[in-house]
What we know:
The strands form 2 sheets. A 3-stranded mixed beta sheet has the order 3-5-4, with helices on one face. The chain has 3 helices and 5 strands, in the order H-H-E-E-E-E-E-H. Helix 1 (5-14) packs across helix 3 and helix 2 (17-28) packs across helix 3. The chain has helices spanning 5-14, 17-28, 79-91; strands spanning 42-43, 46-47, 51-54, 63-65, 70-73.
Amino acid sequence: AVVSTQSTGKAIRSFDNEFKARLLQFVTGTSRVPMNGFRELQGSNGPQKFCIEKWGSPNDLPRAHTCFNRIDLPPYKDYHTLKDKLKTAVECTGGFEID
């Protein structure tokens, strides 16, 4: 079975606050929730809700689009794979450099 939105929420809730902040940074570009909550998240063109999209294959890592506050999640077969792939994606994101 492919993981559901509920499984994604369960995985996110299982992480400690430090990791949740890093995940938020990965998806939105900021590690802080706006003062009045997620409804005030800003994207490149103004207010932009946090969004989860199905994308890719089970071998892919999640990818983020910070301008759109969107995370693309592949159709993982189980909760533990989802959780592991989220951790890997966030922990291996060191940003980028421009030479």
